[in-house]
Amino acid sequence: ALDQEAKTDFPIPAGVFAEKVVSVKHYTDRLFKFRITRPSSFRFRSGEFVMIGLPNAEKPTFRAYSIASPSWDEELEFFSIKVPNGPLTEHLQKIQPGDTVLMRKKPTGTLVHDALIPGKRLYMFSTGTGVAPFASVIRDPETYEKFEEVILTQTCREVSELSYAKELVEEVLNDPLVGEFAAGKLRLHTAATREPYPCQERITTLIESGKLFEDLGLPPLDPAIDRGMICGSMDMINDTKALLEKNGLEEGSNAAPSTFVVERAFVG
Ligand code: A2P
Asked: For FRET with 177, which of 57, 84, 196, 227 sits at 20 to 30 Å CA-CA?
């Protein structure tokens, strides 16, 4: 109780929204999602991230979090890792409905439609919590207006870490609004590298060997048709980027859209 009182002793810093936690769901001892209220004035593009903190210090620690909910949603969803002794996540993992979460006002990011030129097939490559921005993108009807096929891939160490993405894709396909757009277009490809699983390879190995495309019944990457988005650890990003470039794709940005985009906000 003392802890609770101490938390509310700190004033809300300038330039941030103070929002209420709506729900929390824990997936593993390392992963959880939470949903907060959305300020009515807050606008963002699906795939962007914001800085998140807690009102537990004079100068709170803020970390970049992809918004996992789509831009039309009334709430904001986030998917988080729990870092032992992590300055933010050590506390964030304990939040309960009704608690206050701080959010800086300006969203930003490159995993957005604006940074890609038109194409037919969208590949989203993620590891771990890197799937979060894609949770937003696959719930946005614009994604299905722009692409004929939408393929989300996630690689994790353990099978249980894939639950969020599996649940999400199931939800999207059954959603009364987005489900109709996603039907027949959205597919999920999952791999677990450190446990027995039907697919036990890194995404980079799967691209290089062609097994990813065999599994999906699709032709090899084609820069005329295929577009990519990458979100994961720095090593995964660099290795995947190199493979896309080898296949003729080129990195784009908000200022200069091209055939694939990368988010580097989450990695050291
Ligand atoms: P692996 O188990 O073979 O290391 P991490 O938790 O280290 O970020 O890893 C998350 C997932 O990403 C794991 O399945 C891991 O595979 C995979 N991974 C790690 N580094 C790379 C990389 N450079 N390229 C592709 N996948 C990677």
From this structure: 227
List, by residue range, all CATH 3.40.50.80 domains of the chain: 113-262
CB 236 near ligand 1, within 6 Å: yes
Question: Is the beta carbon of 235 within 6 A of some atom in ligand 1?
Answer: yes
Please say whether the beta carbons of 268 and 71 come within 8 A: no
Distance 162 CA to ligand 1 centre (A): 13
Q: How far is the CA of 217 from the centre of ligand 1 (A)?
A: 24
- Retrieve residue 116's tokens: 């890609």
Residue-wise pLDDT tens digits, 14-71:
889 999 999 999 999 999 999 999 999 999 999 999 999 999 988 999 999 999 999 9
pLDDT of residue 268: 44
CA-nearest residue for atom 8, ligand 1, is 233
Counting from 1 in the atom list of ligand 1, the atom nearest the Cα of 128 is: 10
- Of 152, 166, 168, 144, residue with least CA distance to 228: 152
For residue 177, the surrounding DSSP H or E stretch is none
CATH of domain 2-104: 2.40.30.10
The CATH architecture assigned to 113-262 reads 3-Layer(aba) Sandwich (3.40)
Q: Where along the chain do the CATH 2.40.30.10 domains lie? A: 2-104
CB 125 within 8 A of CB 229: yes
The answer to whether 111 touches 134, Cβ cutoff 8 Å, is yes
| Residue 212 pLDDT | 98
Q: How far is the CA of 194 from the centre of ligand 1 (A)?
A: 10
Residue-level pLDDT at 13: 87
Mean pLDDT computed over 188-201: 98
Average pLDDT of the residues of the chain: 95
Q: Which ligand 1 atom is at minimum distance from the Cα of 235?
A: 23
